């Protein structure tokens, strides 16, 4: 999980460079060759599936349903008048659940895995963590640029202390988990992250210190969150039959990605509305 902190840090700096010198669209363009290289590497480097017996069939209907549903939910949350899209996404998500439970011969997501308390609780914690944390780098960058007047590059560099804190938290997570157990470390690290979030809420403002707001508060927030990812993964995969290890890992990753997108949409909307209201009352 130490790679997560490194990726967050590098992405902020590279994003700042691209936005300032090439334009914000290049933040998306630059991912195309990276994804192509990853695809080629996966095809050429990953071992083929040569396990004996019949290969499981891909639940194509289920894949289309859940992808469309999650896209609709994320898009609907982001749009000010996206209630119809949001409702459609939620309806498709319900159809997906019914399809997995009753109609699919080989379901994409075996719902029985949620009977395992560790899987359910681990994914629930990841959901809440994603809603609250994974939007923070983007909102922090906007705060440094729009409030402090920093350039995109300087804002990216300003995130470096947070990346270092995340790297340290991810590095410490393994040792802490081995010593104190995954559940205790998850709870403790989430409390540390919550303390950092309270610090952000207390110190965030137009004339507030970068050191207190970002380096200290967001740094503590990032340390606790990054340190929590490893024990959450351990919890969410504990007690899972060997044949469903891949399912458990994929489920947790999907929850992480989806909650991050929805969290960004919700917090971005709240932030924009708050900023608009403040600008109206402070002409």
From TrEMBL:
Its main location: membrane. It is found in: Cell membrane. Coiled coil: none annotated. One of its GO terms (cellular component) is plasma membrane. It holds the Pfam family MFS_1. Residues 1-283 form the Major facilitator superfamily (MFS) profile domain. Keywords: Cell membrane, Membrane, Transmembrane, Transmembrane helix, Transport. Gene3D superfamilies: MFS general substrate transporter like domains, Multidrug resistance protein D. GO terms for molecular function: transmembrane transporter activity. It is a multi-pass membrane protein. The chain crosses the membrane at residues 26-46, 58-78, 84-103, 124-144, 156-173, 185-204, 210-229. This is MFS transporter. It comes from Spongiactinospora gelatinilytica. The lineage of its organism: Bacteria, Bacillati, Actinomycetota, Actinomycetes, Streptosporangiales.
């Amino acid at each position: 999980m130490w790679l997560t902190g490194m990726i967050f840090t590098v992405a902020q700096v590279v994003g700042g460079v691209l936005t300032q010198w090439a334009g914000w669209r290049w933040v998306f363009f630059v991912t195309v060759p990276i994804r192509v290289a990853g695809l080629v590497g996966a095809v050429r480097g990953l071992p083929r599936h040569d396990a004996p017996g019949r290969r499981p069939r891909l639940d194509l209907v289920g894949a289309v349903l859940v992808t469309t549903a999650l896209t609709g939910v994320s898009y609907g949350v982001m749009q000010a008048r996206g209630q119809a899209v949001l409702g459609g996404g939620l309806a498709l998500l319900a159809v997906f659940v019914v399809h997995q439970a009753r109609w699919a011969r080989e379901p994409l997501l075996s719902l029985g895995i949620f009977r395992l308390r560790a899987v359910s609780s681990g994914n629930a914690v990841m959901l809440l963590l994603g809603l609250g944390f994974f939007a923070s780098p983007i909102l922090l960058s906007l705060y440094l640029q729009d409030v402090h007047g920093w350039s995109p590059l300087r804002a990216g560099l300003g995130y470096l202390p947070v990346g270092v804190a995340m790297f340290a938290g991810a590095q410490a997570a393994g040792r802490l988990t081995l010593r104190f157990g995954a559940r205790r470390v998850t709870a403790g690290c989430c409390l540390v992250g919550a303390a950092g979030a309270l610090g952000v809420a207390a110190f965030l403002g137009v004339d507030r210190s970068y050191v207190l707001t970002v380096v200290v508060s967001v740094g503590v927030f990032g340390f606790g969150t990054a340190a929590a990812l490893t024990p959450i993964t351990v919890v969410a995969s504990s007690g899972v039959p060997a044949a469903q290890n891949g399912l458990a890992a994929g489920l947790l990753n999907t929850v992480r990605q989806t909650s991050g997108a929805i969290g960004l949409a919700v917090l971005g909307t709240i932030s924009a509305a708050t900023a608009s209201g403040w600008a109206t009352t402070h002409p």
